[in-house]
Amino acid sequence: MPGWPCGTMRSASASALPLPRRWARRVRWVLARPLADQWLLLQALVLLGAARLAIRALPFPRLEPLIGTRSAESPHEVSAPELQQARRVAWTIRRISDHTPWTSNCFPQALTARWLLRRKGIDSTLYLGAAFRPDGDGLRAHAWSRCGELYMTGGDGAGEFGAVTSYA
Question: Residue 46: its pLDDT value, please?
Fold first, then answer.
């Protein structure tokens, strides 16, 4: 999506390998993980694709109810098991988002984190923000997600962006 600065970077070394070898190595890595990690990685992959499709295909007023309640925030205090689950979701999304055949930048990542935690009954907040471009020519947009005090996705760039709205 134009204006979203947090697109994934593909490394030159990864693209130098033939496609079947790269995918075979990735599949072996997934199969070596515990079954719970495999299941979470698969869920994240499917939800990243669904989020990307929804963002591309739906007008924002139709997408908004899928995100949550506008101008709401989740609590900053969560239990230790909820925080552990949020860390697992953040790790999973970081691992899988660079390896999707579609662009899985900040908005699909934040939406996927929100959906994965919602399925577990864990509160989280998705933020949409904006910042002026360094050259002063327009705005850049960014999305990030938070559970408790943990910024699960997009937190590395959230400091330079002002939150326009939040969804919980």
Answer: 96
